[in-house]
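User: Please run a holo structure prediction.
Assistant: Happy to. Please share the sequence and the ligand.
User: Here you go; the ligand is IPE.
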Amino acid sequence: MATSEPVRARHVAIIMDGNGRWAKKRHLPRALGHQRGVDAVRRVVRGARELGVEALTLYAFSTENWRRPEEEISDLMGLMKRFILSDLDEFAAAGVRLKIIGDYKAFRPDVVELVEGAVARTADNSGTTLAVALNYGAQDEIARAAIKAAAKGAITPDTIAAELDTADLPPLDLLIRTSGEVRLSNFLLWQAAYAELLFTDVLWPDFSVDHLRDALEMFANRDRRYGGR
Ligand code: IPE
Ligand code: IPE
Ligand code: MG
């Protein structure tokens, strides 16, 4: 369907990349880059809420990130835990619903327990949905969805879509990747079919609400044709 009306992005996803390079540029430890990355998450979740984004999906840990040194993986888990402990009250009070996509149960039991508690606590909230991708890989997601669809009797684009981890979210409108890399790194491959893509050189720890606002404005002016004319 052709439209030239400015439209609001309902579902925005972000590949939060560049924490390591942000730290390296400053001769700081990588872990500090990840820490500043968490500050950016906090800003962007608040901003998305204020800007009326219905769903924000953030790529926090990929199925391929297990290839990183154990120390870095452990730093990331620790940061996730601390983030939930420090910020859950604020998000819960603001009506944010936390959702996890990906096979998060492969994480450490203490992380799984904390994450599940946070999801349960915000389950009835009706404000912005914050979907965090943990041990997420789109190929894994699609394979899991196809198995479920097959078990129910039919594999079609619709039956697969209905079993994806994001099935309860609005269609993906805008996919942003920071840090200058121009690839999807196994993120939301199915959902990105007709999403608008935005690649920016900004490193994730530097990503601000103004960057998000600019991205939403850019989105509003794009002409999505979905194969029509
Ligand atoms: C993104 O930053 C965070 C995660 C993948 C968890 P990186 O750690 O990938 O940072 P760069 O790409 O090395 O700069
Ligand atoms: C993608 O970033 C994963 C996350 C942001 C969680 P990576 O840094 O892992 O991606 P590659 O390795 O550069 O493709
Ligand atoms: Mg990276």
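The helical segments are 19-25, 30-50, 70-93, 109-122, 138-151, 157-161, 209-220.
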